[in-house]
Amino acid sequence: MLIGLACIIVGFFLMMGPDANTTPDGKYDPNYWNDGINSIRRIRIAPFLVIAGFVIEIYAILIRKKD
């Protein structure tokens, strides 16, 4: 279960970052578009890790322990 929890946490950390209107110096500008919002890390890898973490958690809950 700890492996699944670690996958979920890492996935959420990979999704973190500046929003779409944050300039490189950290200021909000409604006329600026940050292309980093659409990076592979944020839209492919991180959600995959979160979903994989939940699948691992469900598997860990449903598996029967050997006596």
Give your account of this protein's structure:
The chain is an all-alpha fold. The chain has one domain. The chain is 55% helix and 0% strand. Helix 1 packs antiparallel against helix 2 (40-62). The longest helix has 23 residues, at 40-62. The chain is rod-shaped and about 60 Å long. The model has no long low-confidence stretch (mean pLDDT 91).
What's the arrangement of secondary structure elements?
Elements: H1 2-15, H2 40-62
The termini sit apart by 19 Å
Helix fraction? 55-70%
As for the number of domains, it is 1
Number of helices: 2
Major sheet characteristics? none
Care to count the β-strands? 0
Mean of pLDDT: 91
Keywords: Membrane, Transmembrane, Transmembrane helix
Protein name: DUF3098 domain-containing protein
InterPro entries: DUF3098
Transmembrane segments: 46-63
